[in-house]
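re: ur question from yesterday

yeah so i grabbed the chain u mentioned. its 156 aa long if i counted rite. heres the sequnce exactly as i have it in my notes:
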Amino acid sequence: MSNEKINKVSVIISKGSLDGVYPGLIMANGARMDGIEANIFFTFFGLETILKKRMNKIKVATVGNPAMHLPSLIGILPGMSAFATAQMKKEMEKLDIPPVPEFIEMVHAAGAKLYACKATVDMFHLTKDDFTEETEDIINVAKFYEIAAGGEIIFT
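ran it thru and got these structure tokens back, copy pasting raw so excuse formatting
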């Protein structure tokens, strides 16, 4: 076990569900609270987190999620995802975990840098205007590796 202190983390968020988004935001926020440089790279459906039109609509995935402990047939019932999302948000509120838009503002204000994946942005036909003002830039993988160099990379 190394006693070396981590100085930088780069978190990759690739899923667009609450259980895909929050771990990355929590990791980046925790890093900033400990004085660790934090970068967040949003790719594929993780872009939902920083899209102005979508960030308030992130839900819990009830189908194909074995941790839900629900048969897939129940998970596809109308309203099930909304119900599970409401329940999870209620529990997070009890723990003082902010909603996604507020969390994005918070980690950015703490000094975390937020980046959108250029390949995914191009694939989904998005522009810089589609993203929150906290989004630092739209970058390619090579630039991400340059930014992440010398730090830990965390996949959520």
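noticed a couple things. The beta strands are 8-13, 37-42, 113-117, 135-139, 152-155. also The mean pLDDT is 89.
anyway ttyl
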